[in-house]
Amino acid sequence: MILGVGIDVVRIDRIAHWWENPGLVARYFHPLEIESIRRKGGGVAGSLAARFAAKEAFAKALGTGLRGFSLNEVQVENDPHGRPYLVLHGRARDLFARRGGARAHLSLTHEKDAAIAVVVIEGDV
């Protein structure tokens, strides 16, 4: 059963300068996520914007907005085929479970100017 759907759009130019501010990056991104972005190399601004959009889309799908957890507790990673997925930590994981979440599906895209994320949260019936 679908518990929630969230979508978010982020302008890439709004996020582009974040990488130069480690404190700001740490506020919004999980340490393992930061390491993944570092390893990836080029296209950092698009990656940051897409991941930030994913975090906000997750909050919308969860139905809590940005209350009850920190965005750096929502980690975006990619499987070996490049498919993005969410890893939840701490209060984000706990809130997801309390609200009946079983699975979270994530789709990301980014073009020249914008990054878009869609999150669908599924619960067990």
Automatic annotation (TrEMBL):
Pfam families: ACPS
Reaction(s) the record says it catalyses: apo-[ACP] + CoA = holo-[ACP] + adenosine 3',5'-bisphosphate + H(+)
Keywords: Cytoplasm, Fatty acid biosynthesis, Fatty acid metabolism, Lipid biosynthesis, Lipid metabolism, Magnesium, Metal-binding, Transferase
Any single Gene Ontology cellular-component annotation: cytoplasm
Residue ranges of coiled coil: none
Cofactor (UniProt): Mg(2+)
UniProt binding sites for Mg(2+): D8, E56
Gene Ontology MF, one: holo-[acyl-carrier-protein] synthase activity
NCBIfam families: acpS, pantethn_trn, PRK00070.3-2
Family: Belongs to the P-Pant transferase superfamily. AcpS family.
Role noted for this protein: Transfers the 4'-phosphopantetheine moiety from coenzyme A to a Ser of acyl-carrier-protein.
Protein name: Holo-[acyl-carrier-protein] synthase
Species this chain originates from: Winmispira thermophila (strain ATCC 700085 / DSM 6578 / Z-1203) (Spirochaeta thermophila)
Gene encoding the protein: acpS
